[in-house]
Amino acid sequence: MPDIVTVGGSPASPSRCATTLGHVRRSMAGRGFTTDAVEVRDLDAQGLVWASFDEPTIRTAIDAVQEARALVVATPVYKAAYSGVLKLFLDLLPPGSLADKPVLPVTTAGSLAHCLALDYALKPVLAALGARHILQGVCLLDSDFEYGPDGAVVALNPASAERLHQAIDALAQPLGKPHPQPQSDPLAPVAILEEVPA
Ligand SMILES: Cc1cc2nc3c(=O)[nH]c(=O)nc-3n(C[C@H](O)[C@H](O)[C@H](O)COP(=O)(O)O)c2cc1C
To answer: How far, in Å, from the CA of 107 to the mean position of ligand 1?
Structure first.
């Protein structure tokens, strides 16, 4: 049973959501937690559309979510809401699936104006699935990320990285395990990256 399962709802690859969730998993692993990942775009597409609960990739993903002690759910803002891809998967979760788990919602968005989608769109769906401990959430703008020449995300700006790290701390707290040293990775604050010896 993984401590933390991340659910990524972007249909794109590479994806800011997926990169951010990879950072969250490494950060949690560095604190001694076990993690697992569900990327909805990797599940069986026909199974998602036909609501095939027992299609093997979907069954495995549903089981992972239900067995997790905590969840991080990330989606790009699409048309001022969550992605349709994420909703296809959330619709397959049995009622009450998120009860008794802290849930950290994360959105990435092109516009600050649509960060509120986290509160008015994503959080109500999580609550409808039984989540009673929904953390404050983090909205990251495309302009918060730093990109390499190939367009891949290489870092997050320091202020946003700090917000994300605070959210990770808040998610870890109710799980009740000690906090060993953090690991460096591409989404660590720039200031920390600069301290890494050449
Ligand atoms: C189809 C589509 C619709 C989008 N709609 C919005 C939107 O309504 N508001 C917004 O702020 N950004 C919007 N965006 C921008 C994405 O939310 C943003 O680029 C996000 O970081 C993408 O995440 P990803 O890299 O994980 O796919 C949209 C992007 C696409 C492709």
So the answer is: 9
pLDDT tens digits, one per residue of 111-160: 999 999 999 999 999 999 999 999 999 999 999 999 999 888 999 999 99
pLDDT at 178: 54
Q: Which of 13, 77, 118 to mutate to test the pocket of ligand 1 (most atoms within 8 A of CB)?
A: 77
Tell me the whole-structure pTM to 2 decimals.
0.92
* Three-state secondary structure call for residue 155: strand
SS3 73: strand
Model confidence pLDDT, tens digit, residues 12-39:
999 999 999 999 999 999 999 999 999 9
Pocket of ligand 1 (CB under 6 A): 10, 12, 15-17, 76-80, 108-111, 114, 142
Q: How far is CA 82 from CA 11, 85, 134, in A?
A: 11, 8, 16
Choices 1.10.540.10, 3.40.50.620, 3.40.1280.10, 3.40.50.360: CATH for 4-195: 3.40.50.360
- Alpha helices for 31-120 (secondary structure H): 45-49, 56-67, 84-90, 117
